[in-house]
Amino acid sequence: MAKRESDSGATHTERRPNDGFSGVESVERALTLLNVFHDSPAALPLKDMAIRSGLTKSTILRLAVSLERFGYLARDKDGLYHLGPMLWRLGSVFRQNLNLGVVVRPVLLDLVNKTGESASFYVPRGDIGVCLYRVNSNRLARDHVEEGDVIPFGLGSSGQILRAFSGGKGAAASRIRQQRVYVSLGERDPDVAGISAAVLGPEEELIGAVSLSGLLTRFTKDTTPNYRKTVIRTAREIEERIGARDRLTGR
Question: What kind and span of H or E run contains 38?
Fold first, then answer.
């Protein structure tokens, strides 16, 4: 994101286009406040935070109450502000996801090579799914998804998997949890089909959903059953590689 300088000399981060979604001003102010530590000393007084963020001292004090409460900011006995422990925890989660890519990306590539369709790996974040890893098909006609794209729970094959394994209720969710796979034919987009399978951890906790997707016309009565089996095997392979499933017993 580009940076601009205010009349007071403070540096601000310009907002990127948000594709029709409006942001929340208070949240953006809080993030602006945290961003002042990007290239700053480990501890800052209120005055310096105001200069660097362009926010008033009274605004900073109000934001700091909530940020401290949730562990994103800390204040020492001298009144200096520090980044809080929650950011370390989130960073640890992020690093774990990066390590997961070493396992997932090669498996997705193998899935693409076997089927000719695109492969993705989605993870739950709140009540949405995020495409963490993606390997696109070499075909010119394909569905267009990029890493970082989000989907709501319950939409498409991956959304159905994430919803079912994140406390989803009802007969459909129960069936998905039992089968651990879901086939979507034109649900997310009338021209797109998808098949997703759950990837579970050692304690049967949801890690994510591996998904195969492509044009609906290529998911026929002949190809879909084979694609379904291949996606399930791919999910099991990821589980084996992260130590959640024993190769010999399958448990």
Answer: none
pLDDT in tens, 112-132: 999 999 999 999 988 899 999
3-state class (DSSP) for residue 13: strand
Query: What would the pLDDT profile of 19-46 be if each residue is shown by its tens digit?
Result: 455 678 889 999 999 989 877 678 899 9
Report d(CA 223, CA 178) in Å as an integer: 23
Q: Which amino acid is it at 20?
A: G
Query: What are the tens digits of pLDDT across the range 131-178?
Result: 999 999 998 888 888 999 999 999 999 999 999 999 999 999 999 999
Strands (E), 99-240: 118-125, 128-135, 150-152, 181-185, 192-200, 206-215
For residue 18, pLDDT beyond 80: no
- Locus of tokens 């640890």: 92
Contact of 122 with 153, CB cutoff 8 Å = no
The C-alpha atoms of residue 198 and residue 180 are separated, in whole angstroms, by 5
pLDDT digits (tens, 9 = 90+) for 189-227: 899 999 999 999 888 999 999 999 999 999 999 999 999
The token duo for 153 is 């729970």
Scanning 2-155, the segments in alpha helix (DSSP H) are 25-35, 46-53, 57-69, 85-115
Q: Report the alpha-carbon distance of residue 138 to residue 141 in Å, rounded.
A: 9
Tokens 């649900």 identify what position? 187
Q: Which two tokens stand for residue 227?
A: 């694609």
- Distance from the first to the final alpha carbon of the chain: 46
Q: Distance between CA 120 and CA 211 in Å, rounded?
A: 5
SS3 label, residue 11: strand
Write out the two tokens for 72: 């994103």
